[in-house]
Amino acid sequence: MKVRKTIPLWLAGAALVAVTGCSDPDQGPAEEAGEQVDQAVEQAREELQEAGEAAGEMTQEARERVEDMIDEPGPAEEAGETMDEAVEAAKEEMEQAAEKAEETMEDN
C-alpha cells in the first residue's frame, strides 16, 4: 500500500532534518525534530484518510453494481418466465380440447 511506504520516508526525512539542524535560532534540535515528526504524522493521517475515503467509494460502487445485477432480470429468468407462459397456454388449450371432447361425446 502506498501509504505504508511513505510513512517511513517521512520519518526518515524528519530525522535527517533534525540531525542536520535548521536555521531557526529560537528552536533547539528536539523542537525541530518534534515539528518534523508532527508534519510526517499529519501527512500520514491525511493519506490514510484519503485511502479510507477511496475504499469507501469503491465499496459503494461495488454495492450498487451488485444491486443492479439483482434487480434486473437476467436471461435465465426471462427464459423461465417465457416457459411458464408457454406451459400455462398449453394447459389452457388442453382444458379447452378436453371440454370439446366431452361435449362431442355427450352429443353422440
List the helices and strands and how they pair.
Layout lengths: L1 H19 L8 H43 L3 H33 L1
Describe the protein in words.
By secondary structure, this protein is mainly α. It has 2 domains: 72 residues; 36 residues. It is built from 3 helices and no strands. Helix 1 packs antiparallel against helix 2. The relative contact order is 0.07. The model has no long low-confidence stretch (mean pLDDT 81). Keywords: Signal.
Radius of gyration: 37 Å
The number of distinct helices, counting runs of at least 4 residues, comes to 3
What is the terminal-to-terminal distance?
88 Å
How do the SSEs run, as a string of H and E? Answer: HHH
Low-confidence stretches: none
Total count of domains: 2
Shape assignment: rod-shaped
Provide a concise account of the structure shown:
With 108 residues, the chain is mainly α. Helix content is 88%, strand content 0%.
List the keywords.
signal, 3 helices, 108 residues, 88% helix, mainly alpha
